[in-house]
Structure to design on (544 residues):
């Protein structure tokens, strides 16, 4: 998928929702067996319940790796399931990898070839050379951590105490000059209200993947207003608010309802 | 393992060598089948050939993930093999993970529990809160990327053009104040000669894991002289120079010979 087909998908559907799949075993409804297969069943049920309301799914690798080999198997099965049942949805591996040369190539192979994900989240700490192997894949996205939604974003990414260039400013500036930079998206927290417009000015054409609405306190309408561009340019992620909407046997219906409510808000924002 | 037992192990053995296991399929000797089982056989042969000369093994997760589920299985088998056959060796998962709260907990579970690694490499980009779950494990190490050995280190970690606080200075200062900070090591490139003494002054008691000797141009004796502390405080990594010492059927003997040569140099440095 490229940016223009993503924009088209968003506009047709009236949704820029990404459903984050971060399944913590302890929070699964009681009727699921507490193993990797239980996890997989929960995830596929969430996917089916919310697919009509979102344009992207973002499974987080950590929660699968915690189950060892069987967990990696469940992640692969989940990606294959989404690809087969919901082929128009973007699949983002929330993996936050970041390493040099041959290692980056191997990670790209892992997520873009061995699994058929469409995008991967990446940490830029080791420099922009670490992103290049991912950008060589047509129709795939490299989603670079910029200003994240957590409190720790102020440790290094944005140091408000000092009048120095912030790390996130350097990250965006340097990555924007890379070959195939149209395949880059940025993770920008929806909680980072005071910086959103400024960050958008640094990367006017790139998609922002925005976590942080709901539990973390970010506002959907404010984030959208500050971060949108001419191609929409925004994917808003919701994880816990959707996947744990109910811990009972009605978890899928509850997830569907939450996703539908966000869809409705997004439709309004898009068609104003 | 804690710092003092690592120091003791180093001094007894006369080696602070870490063998990096970064197996690129294309570089495996021709008699190995080009699949995850071939990869595993190559890796266990390297481990057995070099164990007498090193105190740590550092498998890089990317090269296993590139094989999908079977690759993750091979990584788990490799870690279990090292644990069983060479129980006194430190096993470092070179995974460069970095994420918040529950996600970090899940990664810690993946590498410290589902696999029994002793340490994991971590990216600090998202802030120091992302390191805390790992530091709660006694006898495990969180190895934080500080100033890496690649050219990209100068993109963000160290910006020599400007008279500002460098990112790596912030990273070390902030992480040194964390609870259980004695369980932190830092990745510091052996290629970063002009900064080694200074970085050591910022973290006088921490172990440095140092890649970059050999192919990347770092000098073992210079790196050791600049970075050592009262507890040795240095693990020097070599990957390509050892594991690809020969591409023929004698690859294990050649790897052994390279590791033995580094061991001999290290013994001399330690016992001067």
């Amino acid at each position: 998928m490229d940016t223009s087909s993503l924009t088209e998908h968003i506009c047709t559907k009236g949704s820029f929702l990404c459903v984050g799949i971060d399944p913590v075993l302890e929070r699964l409804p009681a009727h699921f067996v507490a193993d990797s297969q239980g996890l997989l069943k929960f995830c596929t049920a969430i996917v089916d319940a919310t697919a009509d309301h979102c344009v992207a799914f973002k499974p987080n690798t950590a929660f699968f790796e915690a189950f060892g080999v069987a967990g990696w198997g469940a992640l692969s099965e989940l990606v294959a399931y989404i690809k087969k049942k919901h082929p128009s949805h973007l699949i983002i591996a929330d993996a936050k990898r970041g390493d040099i040369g041959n290692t980056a190539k191997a990670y790209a192979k892992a997520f873009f070839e061995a699994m058929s994900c469409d995008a991967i989240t990446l940490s830029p700490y080791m420099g922009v050379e670490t992103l290049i192997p991912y950008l060589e894949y047509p129709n795939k996205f490299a989603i670079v951590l910029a200003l994240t939604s957590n409190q720790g974003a102020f440790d290094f990414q944005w140091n408000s105490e000092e009048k120095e260039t912030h790390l996130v400013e350097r990250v965006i500036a340097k990555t924007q000059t890379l070959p195939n930079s149209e395949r880059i998206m940025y993770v920008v927290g929806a909680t980072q209200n005071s910086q959103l417009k400024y960050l958008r000015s640094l990367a006017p054409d790139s998609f922002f993947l925005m976590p942080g609405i709901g539990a973390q306190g970010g506002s959907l309408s404010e984030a959208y207003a500050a971060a949108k561009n001419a191609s929409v340019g925004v994917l808003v992620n919701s994880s816990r608010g959707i996947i744990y909407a109910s811990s009972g046997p009605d978890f899928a219906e509850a997830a569907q309802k939450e996703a539908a409510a966000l869809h409705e808000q997004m439709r309004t924002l898009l068609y104003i």
The mean pLDDT of chain A is 96. Residues 3-271 of chain A form a domain with the TIM Barrel fold (CATH 3.20.20.70). Residues 32 and 41 of chain A are 8 Å apart (CA to CA).
